[in-house]
Amino acid sequence: MRHGLWPDEDHATEAPLVLEQRHGPYEVLVLPRDDGCLAGFIEVGERNYAEGCETTPVAYIEGWWVDEDVRRTGAGRALVRAAEERAIARGHREIASDAVIDNRVSILAHRALGFDEVERQVCFRKDLR
After folding, report:
1. What is the pLDDT of residue 67?
2. 10 Å Cβ neighbour count for 82?
3. What is the pLDDT of residue 104?
4. Count of C-beta atoms within a 10 Å radius of residue 22
5. Given phi > 0 = left and psi -120 to 50 = alpha, else beta, which region is 74?
6. pTM to 2 decimals?
7. Contact criterion met (CB below 8 Å) for 113 and 96
8. Is 88 helix (H, G, I), strand (E, B) or coil?
């Protein structure tokens, strides 16, 4: 599922490093299937700052994936709701997330779940080697 969400990452190498580098509370919530396999996950942590937010720290959805065969069934909504409940229990007043600017499906899903779009950006890099 992580590969479906982030296809360019070397997950065997990078996932443990990402989890080690997280500062503050961080959790991966999963959506089980009846057969014991997983149908989705949501990675939620907190950040000191998130665009458009007024409070700090802010709960942050770092990653969110639902298998195609269970999309549009409420599975994604259930994962986001679990992340929201976790955030509320930790005393957060806001939860933030992001989507790649051309990921129309993710943007529409966020909007359907009550997220407000607060900013669009294009990021750049330059190799100096």
Report:
1. 94
2. 16
3. 93
4. 13
5. left
6. 0.83
7. no
8. helix
Q: What is the CA radius of gyration of the chain?
A: 15
Taking only the tens place, the pLDDT of each residue in 11-39 is 677 667 666 655 567 888 999 999 999 99
Q: Tokens at residue 124, please?
A: 């750049």
What would the two tokens of residue 9 be?
């990452």
Which tokens hold the place of 74?
């409420």
- The segments of the chain whose pLDDT lies below 70 read 2-3, 5-7, 11, 14-15, 17-24
Cis peptide before 57 (omega within 30 of 0): yes
Distance CA 97, CA 50 (A): 8
Helices (H), 1-129: 2-5, 11-21, 75-89, 104-112
Report how far Cα 74 is from the mean position of its chain's Cα atoms: 16
**43 to 55, 98, 118: CA distances (angstroms):** 20, 12, 21
Q: What angle do CA 107, 111, 116 make, to 5 degrees?
A: 100
Contact 40, 67 (CB under 8 A): yes
Put residue 57 in one of left, alpha, beta given phi > 0 → left and psi -120 to 50 → alpha. Answer: beta
